[in-house]
Amino acid sequence: MTNATVIPSRNTDYGFFGTLTTCPERDRRTSEVWILASLLIAQAVNATSEEEMIGIRDFLDSRSGRHFADEVVGALQCGAPDCQAAIAAAIAKWQDWRISRATERSDGIPAGLPYLAGWVQHFAVTASMEEQH
What we know:
Elements: H1 15-20, H2 30-45, H3 50-61, H4 63-77, H5 83-96, H6 101-107, H7 115-132
């Protein structure tokens, strides 16, 4: 996968982590699925730095992360064999979508970028800017 270090959630009641508490695959703990999702997303968006891993954490902790988790749970309910396959399906779907001009205007993410990669980078940049202040 990747040598990136997974950063734990800061929002276990909401976002991706909170939504996974309803995950139908009960043989995996939520923290294990968090790690798996973080590593698979890092691989998909070529994230290697700590800053990018913070972006993944913040993405997963956000409202967008909750929607991403909904995709994972939906894939499991539609027959994905396990969480890894469900996460991979959600990643493929989100990477196929593109950032719109409206999102570019409202959030500053360049239009045309893959949706998942764009949001991860958005959260990485936002975290970096907050750190500087």
